[in-house]
Amino acid sequence: GCGKSVLSAAAIEDIKRLCFVEKGHTVAYFYFTFSDPKKQDLRNMLRSIIGQLLLASSDIGLPDEIIKLYRSSKASGMLPDIKDLQVALSHITGLSRKTFIILDALDEFPKATRGRLLSWIGELRADPDAGSLSLLMTSRPETDIAKSLELPTTFAIPLQSKFIDPDIQSYIESCLDRRPGFTKFTEVMKGEIKERLVSGSQG
């Protein structure tokens, strides 16, 4: 791959640390993947995100919207409607001081139905009830995804770009200096390794 999930995993761990020290900050994430049909489903994603945010905010109890949604689903014997889940999620994010949602590999959501996912993302970002919300999304450069996310509030970082070479260099230097396996290398050898890896990375 092109490193999407590695980037997401690093971001998730960093944001988790932030949420641990900042009261009222919550984070939830979902990995889309070609290999698992259950992880190519909008309803499953919404249920997962909602569950994670509720768990992170367990000290405030279950919101009325969630209780109503549960009772309605139980009475009908059916899974909650996607629209109802979307409304519930917006309400939950609005309860936190700050919410982070990470969606990894949008391109691995089936293209035939991806429009619904992208529409929901647009609606969520524009929803005033969603509160202070930050979204991090990763994807290969698919045309429909890029077009859908072309908004003034979107900040895109291409992984295959010289733009992130300083970050790659910093990471390599950290590994060479701190990991036991590299301690026997001379500074000249470390310099050559760093130069080769950075110049050949293309982001």
From TrEMBL:
UniProt entry tagged with the keyword Repeat: yes
Keyword hit for Repeat: yes
Domain spans labelled Nephrocystin 3-like N-terminal: 1-140
InterPro entries assigned to the protein according to its UniProt record, in alphabetical order: NPHP3-like_N, P-loop_NTPase
Organism per entry: Tuber aestivum (summer truffle)
Domain of life from the UniProt record: Eukaryota
Pfam families: NPHP3_N
This protein's UniProt keywords: Repeat
Protein name from the UniProt record: Nephrocystin 3-like N-terminal domain-containing protein
